From TrEMBL:
GO cellular component, as recorded: cytoplasm
GO terms, molecular function: kynurenine-oxoglutarate transaminase activity; pyridoxal phosphate binding
Species: Neptunomonas marina
SUPFAM superfamilies noted in UniProt: PLP-dependent transferases (SSF53383)
PANTHER family in UniProt: FI04487P
Cofactor: pyridoxal 5'-phosphate
Keyword Signal: no
InterPro entries linked: Aminotransferase_I/II_large, Kynurenine-oxoglutarate_AT, PyrdxlP-dep_Trfase, PyrdxlP-dep_Trfase_major, PyrdxlP-dep_Trfase_small
Family label: Belongs to the class-I pyridoxal-phosphate-dependent aminotransferase family.
Residue intervals of the Aminotransferase class I/classII large domain: 29-379
Keywords: Aminotransferase, Pyridoxal phosphate, Transferase
The protein's name in its UniProt record: Pyridoxal phosphate-dependent aminotransferase
Top-level taxon: Bacteria
Length: 382
């Protein structure tokens, strides 16, 4: 039998799966994948059990439980001054990844071009390609990984359908400024180009800075999908509950895709999150200090190592340059690191279409203090 040719020839087993397998084989400390090794707030976890025992165990509405959509609308208004209709402009999804796929599928057609920035989260390009689009990948340069807006302007053509933003940025930890958003808005003012803004780390921004959300930018809001996730905010990545904000016309198209991907998201989990958002409305304001303490601890512990630590403005990732330790490609270095130090990192070359000749890997510091101390001790000894 002849099977159909693959629609995603560049997609194989992810580096995250490979590194996790190696970590298990070597009993290594895993600072690779982007999820915490601690639970979310007890009150939030308890609320799920309450709603399960109270009978909230059937399908939720396709767009999401009304109470949760209303809580999101209130939060976005309070944090960013962006006003969204809970009924028509907010959709609950199976994590941010589904929201990203549904948004891309809703608007990208055969022959369309989508501008994105390398290094880039690995779900963007496959979603574009499976919908017949082509990615135009612009490189962000180390160590600061800032957007070159003239390069963006030069990359725009009559085929450009969408620009994908990610701030705070995975894997680099950089953030977009108000000036960045204003520049983009001016650039797109007389076009029909859309924006997809991945903001899952919106509440993890350091050093007193504020997250600049597309949801709070009036000129960009009318042409944008804004995606976020409760997994990163509440340390519940396994729940897979995310959401997408978009104008009514764009939300209607996104929901056409969403209803045939997952239709509805877990009812008791949505209700539990809505309860917690009402009971702890300031949680997002408190999260930066929580993660900055972990960033600063990890950086202090690593200060005497031979790694060069790059600036990290947000997310729970720390990039390091390892060339003073070993001058080999990053995938090879990560394999060596597991075998010789018992610590797992992620090579950032896997986030690029054409990787630059750098020696940089990513560590995740969303871990307990004991794990960070044990990992740093091993890394300092290299």
């Amino acid at each position: 039998m002849n099977y159909p040719e693959t629609k995603l020839p560049k997609v194989g087993t992810t580096i995250f799966t490979q590194m996790s397998q190696l970590a298990a084989q070597h009993n290594a400390l895993d600072l690779s994948q982007g999820f915490p090794d601690f639970d979310g707030p007890t009150a939030l976890l308890d609320a799920v059990g309450h709603h399960i025992s109270s009978g909230a165990n059937q399908y939720a509405p396709m767009a999401g439980v009304p109470a949760l959509r209303e809580a999101i609308a209130e939060k976005v208004s309070r944090f960013y001054g962006g006003h969204y209709c809970a009924e028509r402009e907010i959709t609950i999804t199976s994590g941010a990844t589904e929201a990203l796929f549904a948004a891309i599928s809703a608007v990208v057609r055969t022959g369309d071009e989508v501008i994105m920035f390398d290094p880039a989260y690995d779900s963007y390009e496959p979603a574009v390609e499976i919908n017949g689009g082509t990615t135009v990948r612009l490189q962000l340069s180390a160590p600061h990984f800032k957007v070159d807006w003239q390069a963006v302007r030069d990359a725009i053509t009559a085929k450009t359908r969408l620009i994908i933003l990610n701030s705070p940025h995975n894997p680099t930890g950089t953030t977009l400024t108000q000036h960045d958003l204003d520049t983009l808005a001016d650039m797109l003012a007389d076009t029909d180009i859309l924006v997809l803004s991945d903001e899952v780390y919106e509440h993890i921004v350091f050093d007193g800075e504020q997250h600049q959300s597309v949801a709070g930018h009036e000129a960009l809001r009318e042409r944008s999908f804004v995606v976020s996730s409760f997994g990163k905010t509440y340390h519940i990545t396994g729940w897979k509950v995310g959401y997408c904000l978009a104008p009514a016309a764009l939300s209607a198209e996104l929901r056409k895709v969403h209803q045939y991907l997952t239709f509805a998201i877990s009812t008791p989990m949505q209700l539990a999150i809505a309860d917690y958002m009402a009971d702890a409305p300031n949680y997002g304001f408190e999260l930066p200090a929580f993660y900055q303490q972990k960033r600063d601890l990890f950086c202090r512990l690593m200060a005497s190592s031979r790694f060069e630590l790059l600036p990290t403005q947000g997310t729970y990732f720390q990039l390091v340059d390892y060339r003073a330790i070993k001058d080999v490609p990053d995938i090879e270095f990560c394999q060596w690191l597991i075998e010789h130090a018992g610590v797992v990192a992620i090579p950032i070359s896997v986030f690029y279409q054409t990787p630059p000749d750098t020696r940089i890997v990513r560590f995740c510091f969303a871990k307990g203090e004991a794990t960070l101390k044990a990992a740093a001790e091993r890394l300092v000894n290299l």
